[in-house]
Specification:
It is built from six helices and nine strands. By secondary structure, it is α/β, with parallel strands linked by helices. It has a domain at 56-201: Rossmann fold (3-Layer(aba) Sandwich). The strands form two sheets. A seven-stranded mixed sheet has the order 5-4-3-6-7-8-9. Strands 1-2 form a two-stranded antiparallel sheet. A hairpin with a 4-residue loop joins strand 8 and strand 9 (193-201). Helix 1 (4-16) packs antiparallel against helix 2 (22-29). It has helices spanning 4-16, 22-29, 62-73, 91-97, 110-122, 159-163, and strands at residues 51-54, 57-59, 81-85, 102-107, 128-132, 145-150, 165-176, 181-188, 193-201. The chain is globular.
Length: 211
């Protein structure tokens, strides 16, 4: 269940679905997804499927994690610091931590934030900072960020996140209501923001406040 061969089979499925960045594929292969789900679901950890993690939240499908990560890396010469909105169980966070210098992650649900922080510490991930907070506000004191990745769907991109994106950086997020969502990539140039649309997706809604 947790063998390298099992993880490699997942990577093979991702390649078959179009993921091509070798750094992203290596990060997925090196991330022990079974440690990010409840023990009762560990046998399903390397399926290409979203799974519940409690509090009406899910661990994202590996294909979506890989797709968003690949989009975040594309066209950016070097990521120095990433802002992640929605830590969840910390799976996407660990994937990012293997690819960039620093990850700042925000989770609005207190018990998830604590569990993710402890899990990543146990896995010896030392370049991640996680706080309990409202993702709509971002984390301005550590910005600007060369990349912003959002793992819940706002109806429209929060203005605060535009402001915290560095020139030359990229932001990837699902946008839409509970019925229709699409992955969006926003790139900030010296004079403007360039927007492109990707996969149709189904994320939990992005909510304000913290609990």
């Amino acid at each position: 269940m947790t063998s390298r061969r099992t993880r490699d089979r997942l990577v093979d499925r991702l390649i078959a679905k179009g993921i091509s960045n070798p750094r992203v594929l290596d990060a997925i292969a090196n991330t022990p997804r079974h440690l990010f789900v409840d023990e009762a679901l560990a046998s399903r950890a390397y399926e290409d499927a979203a799974l519940p993690i409690g509090y009406q939240q899910t661990i994202s499908q590996p294909f979506i994690v890989a797709t968003m990560t690949e989009a975040l890396l594309a066209g950016v010469e070097k990521h120095t610091r990433i802002l992640e909105i929605g830590t969840g169980c910390g799976y996407q966070t660990m994937v990012l931590a293997q690819l960039v210098n620093l990850v700042y992650s925000i989770e609005r649900i207190g018990p998830l934030q604590v569990a993710a922080r402890d899990r990543l510490y146990d896995l010896k991930i030392r370049n991640v900072y996680i706080k309990h907070g409202d993702g709509f506000a971002g984390w301005p004191e550590n910005g600007p960020y060369t990349g912003i990745l959002v793992t819940a769907a706002p109806k429209a991109v929060p203005e605060e996140l535009y402001e915290q994106l560095a020139v030359g950086g990229a932001m990837v997020l699902p946008e839409g209501d509970k019925n229709v969502q699409r992955l969006i990539t926003i790139r900030r140039t010296a004079n403007n923001y360039e927007r492109s649309e990707g996969e149709w997706v189904n994320f939990v809604p992005m909510l304000s406040g913290k609990v």
